[in-house]
Amino acid sequence: MRVRRKSSLKVPAREELVEADLVDELSNDDLINAHLDWGPARLEGLKRLREAGRPWPEHWHWDWSKKADLLDLLAYHCFGIVHGGRMQGLMMVSTIAGKGRLPGQVGKPVLYIEYLESAPWNYRELAEKPEFLGVGVRLLEAAVEFSGEEGFGGRVSLHSLSQSTEFYRKHMTDLGLDSGHPQGLRYFEMNMEQVRTFVEGRKP
Amino acid sequence: MPTELTKRTMTLNLTDAEMRVLESLSAQKDLSKTAVIRQALRLYQLLDARLSKGEKLFFEDKAKHEKAELMMI
Fold first, then answer.
1. Structure confidence at residue A174 (pLDDT)
2. Alpha carbon A140 to chain centroid, angstroms
3. pLDDT band (50, 70, 90) for residue B72
4. C-alpha–C-alpha distance, residues A26 and A36, integer Å
5. Taking CA atoms, what residue in A is nearest to B46?
6. Which end of chain B has fewer CB within 10 Å, C or N?
7. Do B3 and A2 touch (CB under 8 A)?
């Protein structure tokens, strides 16, 4: 794991920002360790949802330790946000799975976000009071940045679970349900204008 | 700014035809020639890894109802 640069997360209880490390070059062990660390909090949260009769998040079964093998391939990269020695969120991207679909960028390479998840104690549906906010947007920021470094112009895309569509619609274009996707999820893509707006909006 | 990863430089010898293809892909994909080569390497590694596990690679033309296996060395 390598510290790529400094980042920040918001502590909702105190309405203040804390410094965090945006990390990349994650190893298989880093993913396994994060999975082990997240497990008890995830189960706690699921138990609470069951008791309250509320539905479980669609990604409750995600197992980052099973995704670790993909890191042996050059096409996959993993990013994380670390604060207090704990992984606060993880994202896996692919440099070969994305091809532009929006007008003006059809067929052009797009960084595809395979998975993006906040630690269970930061996820609103699972935690009674999330410890940190902003994990998703910080990781999306990293994806746009990495896409630029790869020569993809900052373009990113993903398929979103229905629980997350509202978040992605704020920053990306919703191209609707994708019949070509195994689960028929909604497809989102960021065009150059959205990239510029997103990057400008994140400047201090 | 992110910390730079160490990168190594090599000379790549290509025929005129290969260079034309590389230039064409570079223009078509809006990528630098280096980026095209890097993408090709990533794709080759991924395909090789999956084929080594016994998976097969097919091209399908649904309109013509044709499906052909692609053999890769």
1. 96
2. 6
3. confident
4. 15
5. A73
6. C
7. yes
Within 10 angstroms of residue A47's Cβ, the number of other Cβ atoms is: 10
Closest residue of chain A to B50, computed from CA coordinates: A73
CA-CA distance, A131 to A128, in Å (whole number)? 9
Question: What mean pLDDT comes out for the span A48-53?
Answer: 89
In a domain, residue B64? The reply is yes
A-B interface: how many C-beta pairs under 8 angstroms?
46
Place of tokens 């207090």: A84
Amino acid letter, residue B14: L
Please determine, looking at this structure, whether the domain spanning A2-202 carries the CATH number 3.40.50.1980: no
Helix ranges (H only) for A52-191 are 64-67, 135-149, 165-169
Burial grade of A100 (CB within 10 A; 0-12, 13-18, 19 or more): buried
Tens-place pLDDT, residues B10-66:
999 999 999 999 999 999 999 999 999 999 999 999 999 999 999 999 888 888 889
The reply to whether B42 falls in a domain is yes
CA-CA-CA-CA dihedral for A24, A28, A30, A36, to nearest 10: 140
What residue numbers bound the domain in which B45 lies?
16-69
Tell me the one-letter amino acid at A149: E
Distance CA A30, CA A23 (A): 11
